[in-house]
Amino acid sequence: MGELPLDINIQEPRWDQRTFLGRARHFFTVTDPRNLLLSGAQLEASRNIVQNYRAGIVTPGLTEDQLWRAKYVYDSAFHPDTGEKVVLIGRMSAQVPMNMTITGCMLIFYRQTPTVVFWQWLNQSFNAVVNYSNRSGDAPITVRQLGMAYVSATTGAVATALGLKSLTKHLPPLVGRFVPFAAVAAANCINIPLMRQRELQVGIPVTNEQGQRLGHSVAAAKKGIFQVVISRICMAIPAMAIPPVIMDTLEKKDFLKRRPWLGAPLQMGLVGFCLVFATPLCCALFPQRSSIHVSRLEPELRAQIQEQNPSIEVVYYNKGL
């Protein structure tokens, strides 16, 4: 068997990102919870394979499938812009197990105010870690900015949940089951922009088609953050809308009335099943490497690009997750 050629483009995903199906296959791999079980040594080995290959060094005996596997292991644990190892619960592969637990508990314990406050707080704490870990660009964010974003998002989520809970007291029980989703949707609109506020201040890197950095753009940051907010809200819809309807029906049946202890694990399982598909499919709604027309950039950056590269009409950026 000959040595692996050096013309495999591992800067890009293995599947065509111009199609939804290609992006879905990519994110089913990125969000695979089994990546959480990999040891530090396995992560470092994958990083070495990827970095060596990018430097023109092929690990002896390496196959193309092994190279792509190493690339996806690397992508699952390291930030694409900074190269830092992402904290375990901040990785996209932790989305399904973590959200299954937290979302399941939000849907189970939605009746009492203390439990509503606790699980909304825990959810926003987790979201803050995820949003920071999967931000776009390499611009630093201060501890003060992180703290303000965290407090604002958590306060917004809890206030929304408690406000809606009080409004639905006299409505059918099924309506009350959807309060957690409304709170999560509102919090996403607060948490993501605040945790990524640095991008809105200094912009995110934009590049040409070959990946050469051309400057930083706030306009690209706004578009990327908007796309992520939409993806996150859509991601929550199946897991927070389907199980409540099913559970509301099942809890009226004799089977669950005789076995009330089955309610919690059943609801948790339904949430997990929805998230296994919703997480990668909603991440795939927009390309990870998104594009924006030069005419929509800031005047200074637009003028700079048109002066130095007059043939460029579209630039690219990492929208974050």
TrEMBL record:
GO terms for cellular component: mitochondrial membrane. GO terms for molecular function: monoatomic ion transmembrane transporter activity. The chain crosses the membrane at residues 266-286. It is found in: Mitochondrion membrane. Pfam families: SFXNs. It catalyses: L-serine(in) = L-serine(out). It is a multi-pass membrane protein. GO terms for biological process: amino acid transport; one-carbon metabolic process. Keywords: Amino-acid transport, Membrane, Mitochondrion, One-carbon metabolism, Transmembrane, Transmembrane helix, Transport. InterPro entries: Mtc. NCBIfam families: mtc. Mitochondrial serine transporter that mediates transport of serine into mitochondria, an important step of the one-carbon metabolism pathway. Mitochondrial serine is converted to glycine and formate, which then exits to the cytosol where it is used to generate the charged folates that serve as one-carbon donors. Belongs to the sideroflexin family. This is Sidoreflexin.
